């Protein structure tokens, strides 16, 4: 039905000015974004979208929005959605970019085909199907972008959460923050052992001040890390054990007897310095004594 | 060297080789009257439970013959594997490299002897 197919394109051609104005108005009503810059950006995006949409309508079948001639439209929408997702728009705001186009298009259609009820119904149906499909596409793209952000953050969190700090010559500290699970322990262990080799350290202090819960599994993981570090020839100290955690460990019957434990990182550091043959002297006090 | 024996494991250990090493090492300790044994496993890429146990038993045998054993140069992946296998090698001295190993040996031998 080539005649019918071109109807939408024809109307877009003829009434582009009206549709654009009405669409922008509708967007301003639905959108919560009101700053001048955002309005300007939305206007630019709307004009650009209408342009690619028109081109697609002229070349392609409006009932098949997955066809090749619709690629520019799809690409544009995907781009737009991911930009909006990144700059903090809600999914509703993103999808309403497309859905708010319905009303201007229907108005234009009814004033063009007002006399012919059947043709009007046909065209409205076609336009609805088309815009719905495109609207869903924006939501999907939005979702995908968000998922990408989440998985990237997870990765970053994993890397950030296991720093190995060199406190002194031959002394490493490993401040653990957050819940320890098997996957994280593996990363922690690997990082610690690599750092031991790299810095040729004799002591490693594992600080668990930031670990909210210690259960048998976490304790097991800690013991494994300590044992692995020992096999590499490094002494391991555990510090930052809070009173509640000390109680839990004992109630659970976990045996931490083979490991030196200290209440605070400072205490553990002092022990490591002493075992390494260092002495810390308060110079002001010594001067005063003399 | 200075009453210490240095064993460097260069190839992948298989079980027969491990047993040969055990034999050789004990007789060498006796004939050289060694006070310390340094086992360098930095070239060892993978271990199994047998090798782990073998290292532990070498250490015990040496101690019977009045020689201290230090295992040096363990790779991080090897250390993780041994721990996961449940072989934390209690009673074996370890050090990061040969230099630190000799230092540890000296302390151990001087301390006990």
Layout: helices, strands, pairs:
The complex is a heterodimer of chains A (290) and B (113).
Chain A lengths: L1 H13 L1 H15 L5 H24 L11 H16 L4 H9 L2 H12 L3 H44 L4 E4 L2 E7 L4 H18 L3 E8 L5 H16 L3 E5 L3 H10 L7 E2 L3 H11 L7 H7 L1
Parallel strand pairs in A: 2-3, 3-4, 4-5
Antiparallel strand pairs in A: 1-2
Chain B lengths: L3 E5 L6 H18 L3 E5 L8 H16 L3 E5 L3 H9 L8 E3 L2 H15 L1
Parallel strand pairs in B: 1-2, 2-3, 3-4
Indicate the proportion of strand residues of chain A: 5-15%
Q: What would you call the shape of chain B? A: globular
Order of helices and strands of chain B: EHEHEHEH
Assess the beta-strand content of chain B as a share of residues: 15-25%
- Give the helix tally of chain B: 4
Measured distance between first and last alpha carbons of chain B: 18 Å
Form type of chain A: rod-shaped
Q: What is the structural class of chain B? A: alpha/beta
Can you put this structure into words, describing what you see?
The complex is a heterodimer of chains A (290) and B (113). With 290 residues, chain A is of the alpha/beta class. Chain A has helices at residues 2-14, 16-30, 36-59, 71-86, 91-99, 102-113, 117-160, 182-199, 216-231, 243-252, 265-275, 283-289, and strands at residues 165-168, 171-177, 203-210, 235-239, 260-261. Helices cover 67% and strands 9% of the residues of chain A. Chain A has a five-stranded mixed beta sheet with strand order 1-2-3-4-5, with helices on both faces. Chain B is of the alpha/beta class. In chain B, 51% of the residues lie in helices and 16% in strands. In chain B, helix 2 (49-64) links the parallel strand 2 and strand 3. In chain B, helix 1 (15-32) runs parallel beside helix 2. Classes of the chains: A alpha/beta (290), B alpha/beta (113). The A-B interface holds A 186, 189-190, 193-194, 196-197, 200-202, 224, 227-234, 258 and B 71-72, 74, 76, 78-80, 82-84, 88-90, 94-97, 100-101, 104.
């Amino acid at each position: 039905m080539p005649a019918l197919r071109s109807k939408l394109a024809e109307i877009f051609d003829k009434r582009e000015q009206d549709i654009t104005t009405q669409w922008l108005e509708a967007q301003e009503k639905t959108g919560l974004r009101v700053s001048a810059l955002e309005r300007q950006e939305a206007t630019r995006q709307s004009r650009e979208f209408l342009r690619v949409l028109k081109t697609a309508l002229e070349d392609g079948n409006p009932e098949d929005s997955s066809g090749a001639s619709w690629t520019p439209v799809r690409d544009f929408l995907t781009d737009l959605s991911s930009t909006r997702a990144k700059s903090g728009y809600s999914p509703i705001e993103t999808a309403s970019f497309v859905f708010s186009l319905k009303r201007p298009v229907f108005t234009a259609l009814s004033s063009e085909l007002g006399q012919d009820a059947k043709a009007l119904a046909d065209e409205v149906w076609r336009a609805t199907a088309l815009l719905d499909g495109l609207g869903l596409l924006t939501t999907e793209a939005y979702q995908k972008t968000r998922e990408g952000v989440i998985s990237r953050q997870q990765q970053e969190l994993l890397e950030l959460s296991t720093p190995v700090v060199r406190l002194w010559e031959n002394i490493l500290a490993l401040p653990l923050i957050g819940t320890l699970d098997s996957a994280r322990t593996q990363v922690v262990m690997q990082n610690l052992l690599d750092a031991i080799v790299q810095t040729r350290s004799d002591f490693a202090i594992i600080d668990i001040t930031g670990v909210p819960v210690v259960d048998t599994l976490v304790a097991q993981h800690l013991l494994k890390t300590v044992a692995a570090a020992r096999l590499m020839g490094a002494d391991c100290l555990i510090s930052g054990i809070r009173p509640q955690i000390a109680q839990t460990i004992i109630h659970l019957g976990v045996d931490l007897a083979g490991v030196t434990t200290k209440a605070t990182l400072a205490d553990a550091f002092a022990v490591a310095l002493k075992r390494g043959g260092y002495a810390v002297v308060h110079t002001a006090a010594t001067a005063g004594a003399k | 060297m200075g009453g210490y024996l240095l064993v460097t494991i260069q190839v992948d250990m298989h079980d027969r080789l491990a047993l040969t090493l055990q034999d050789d090492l004990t007789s060498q300790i006796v004939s050289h009257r060694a006070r310390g044994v340094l086992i360098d496993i930095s070239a060892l890429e993978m271990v199994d439970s047998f090798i782990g146990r073998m290292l532990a038993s070498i250490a015990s045998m040496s101690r019977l013959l009045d020689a201290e054993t230090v295992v040096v140069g363990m790779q991080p992946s090897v250390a993780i594997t041994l721990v996961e296998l449940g072989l934390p090698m209690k009673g074996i001295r370890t050090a990061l490299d040969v230099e630190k190993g000799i230092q540890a040996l000296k302390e151990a031998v001087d301390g006990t002897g």
